[in-house]
């Protein structure tokens, strides 16, 4: 991998005029002199996507990557749920179940959750803050292109590679199992490849976070002050700060684990090594939950008021609660370790902070509800997903508050209650906010409109499937069903079957989404109005829709088809609309 990266760097260094590229959409030059200006059209086809540094193109690449990972991770869990439909089922072996369990968690968190947020952030933050592009366009591209090899490394065990089997450590990679101790098969190279892939995805996320921080701090338009910075940019800025502190620690822990596995070091192979791994992992792992949930909160805070017909209630409090979550998230990691025997006084302090962090989350929830109160609510597909987000977030949040209490956690720890709680947040909240953003901004990045009926079918099947699946898991946890088992006692069969039915309903909803998304992008009704949601009536138009309106007004008309013409250094900029110009004359 190192040789490959060096070869790529050497090739880039030999490309003529590679330093003279400018991403500015307005025809800017590098160094301020006309002699340095390079006028080349953006390449077309595959070359365009392989070489682009345009923030919008990279946002689309992130989105495509994340949706592919979402499909892979979703199909993994469907196989697991079919296996769990009957306690005696042998559709797959127990070891293969453990492999799917491990890869499903890592795929959804690192290959779907973080990239889908980066997709929205890359495409829309420069538009929202009035920037020409990201602060470091090439670093932005490099951050994305680290992700495909990361996915291949994480999934390497499933490929027909001799003597390589998938990791079976679960996504937490607890030692001594992940260190290869005992007579198991976890010394296999598949675990090492998975760890390398995780490390690569962490490097990508860290590079992206530095870029977002620099962009929001230095590239804002003069009119965009801290006081009127949009809520989505605030949440991404906070998320980027969390990534900057959390992901390098995970990378360090992974490197120590790789050294233990391959070079005989003793970081985690001594007394207390398992507790050390948990402290290092969860110091990353719990901020990671807020790394994943803060930008979706920002999407909901941006989209929900648009269809409630009023501005976000208590904007400043939503911003302050975002910053409070960012600070407090680093003080709650040991609530994952209440059952490990750590000092009771230390344990009590983590319980207090874990309960306290529910307060800023509650502030956001009440602000969303109050924004809808007496509003002119329009139940569009994005609004339905926002309401579903709020509903599922309440269920996921309340069940989390119970787990923050030491006595309750000691009973429910490592049961399906934890799985239900976590998935109410990850699928019921984070994914729902992602779908809200996809539908809301669909006209901007496709120029077309999705099929409304199919969008609502997608919502209702997702909402029903989510609650059937994960509420059944909550009840399984109350019954004492431990998680991460490929089989179970007969008394849990009914609830497992209900959860499997819910998962299949979820699958049906996502199939409808894929069909609607692809078919509408290719053949959907073209958007001719820069305000397709009618936001101007309530004075709720945001900067990205103003940009979209300018794009439509300056589009070239060629037999009824819109054509984007490339200008200076790579950003496609639509030329004047010839037909409109003729009419004006």
UniProtKB/TrEMBL annotation:
InterPro entries: Cyt_c_oxase-like_su1_dom (IPR023616), Cyt_c_oxase-like_su1_sf (IPR036927), Cyt_C_Oxase_1 (IPR000883), Cyt_c_Oxase_su1_BS (IPR023615). It is found in: Membrane. One of its GO terms (molecular function) is cytochrome-c oxidase activity. Residues 558-585 are annotated as: Disordered. It is a multi-pass membrane protein. The keyword Kinase does not apply. Keywords: Electron transport, Heme, Iron, Membrane, Metal-binding, Respiratory chain, Transmembrane, Transmembrane helix, Transport. Belongs to the heme-copper respiratory oxidase family. This is Cytochrome c oxidase subunit I. It comes from Haloferax mucosum ATCC BAA-1512.
């Amino acid at each position: 991998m190192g040789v490959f990266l060096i070869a790529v760097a050497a090739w880039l260094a030999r490309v003529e005029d590679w330093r003279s590229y400018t991403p500015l959409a307005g025809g800017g030059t590098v160094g301020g002199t006309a002699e340095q200006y390079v006028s080349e059209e953006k390449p077309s086809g595959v070359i365009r996507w392989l070489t682009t540094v345009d923030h919008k193109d990279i946002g689309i690449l992130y989105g495509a990557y994340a949706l592919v990972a979402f499909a892979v991770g979703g199909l993994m869990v469907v196989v697991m749920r079919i296996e769990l439909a009957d306690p005696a089922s042998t559709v797959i072996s127990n070891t293969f179940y453990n492999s799917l369990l491990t890869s499903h968690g890592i795929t959804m968190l690192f290959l779907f959750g973080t990239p889908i947020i980066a997709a929205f952030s890359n495409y829309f933050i420069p538009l929202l803050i009035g920037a020409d592009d990201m602060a470091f366009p090439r670093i932005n591209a490099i951050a994305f292109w680290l992700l495909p090899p990361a996915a291949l490394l994480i999934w390497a065990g499933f490929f027909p590679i001799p003597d390589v089997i998938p990791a079976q450590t679960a996504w937490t990679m607890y030692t001594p199992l992940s260190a290869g101790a005992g007579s198991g098969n976890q010394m296999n190279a598949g675990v090492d490849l998975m760890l390398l892939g995780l490390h690569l995805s962490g490097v990508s996320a860290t590079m992206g976070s530095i870029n977002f921080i620099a962009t929001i701090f230095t590239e804002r338009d003069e009119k965009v002050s801290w006081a009127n910075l949009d809520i989505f940019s605030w949440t991404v800025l906070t998320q980027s700060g969390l990534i900057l502190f959390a992901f390098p620690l995970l990378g360090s822990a992974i490197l120590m684990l790789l050294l233990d596995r391959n070079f005989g070091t003793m970081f985690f192979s001594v007394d207390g090594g398992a507790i050390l791994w948990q402290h290092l992992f969860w110091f990353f792992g719990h901020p990671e939950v807020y790394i994943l949930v803060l930008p979706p909160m920002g999407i909901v805070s941006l989209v929900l008021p648009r269809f409630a017909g009023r501005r976000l209630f208590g904007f400043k409090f939503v911003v302050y609660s975002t910053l409070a979550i960012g600070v407090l998230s680093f003080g709650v990691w040991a609530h994952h370790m209440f059952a490990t025997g750590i000092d009771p006084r230390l344990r009590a302090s983590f319980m207090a902070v874990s309960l306290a962090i529910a307060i800023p989350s509650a502030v956001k929830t009440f602000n969303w509800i109050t924004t809808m109160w007496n509003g002119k609510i329009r139940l569009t597909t994005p609004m339905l997903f926002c309401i579903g987000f709020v509903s599922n977030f309440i269920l996921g949040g309340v069940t989390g508050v119970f787990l923050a209490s030491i006595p309750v956690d000691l009973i429910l720890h490592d049961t399906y209650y934890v799985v239900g709680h976590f998935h109410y947040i990850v699928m019921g909240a984070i994914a729902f906010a992602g779908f809200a953003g996809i539908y809301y901004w669909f006209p901007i990045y496709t120029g077309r409109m999705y099929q409304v009926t199919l969008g609502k079918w997608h919502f209702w099947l997702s909402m029903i499937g989510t609650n059937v699946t994960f509420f059944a898991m909550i009840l399984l946890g109350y019954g004492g069903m431990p998680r991460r088992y490929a089989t179970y006692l007969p008394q849990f069969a009914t609830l497992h079957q209900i959860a499997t039915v819910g998962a299949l309903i979820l699958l049906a909803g996502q199939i409808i989404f894929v069909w609607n998304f692809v078919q509408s992008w290719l053949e959907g009704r073209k958007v001719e109005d820069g305000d397709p949601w009618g936001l101007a009536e309530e004075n709720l138009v945001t900067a990205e829709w103003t940009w979209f309106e300018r794009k439509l007004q300056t589009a070239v008309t060629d037999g009824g088809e819109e054509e984007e013409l490339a200008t200076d250094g790579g950003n496609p900029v639509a030329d004047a609309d010839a037909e409109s110009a003729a009419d004006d004359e």
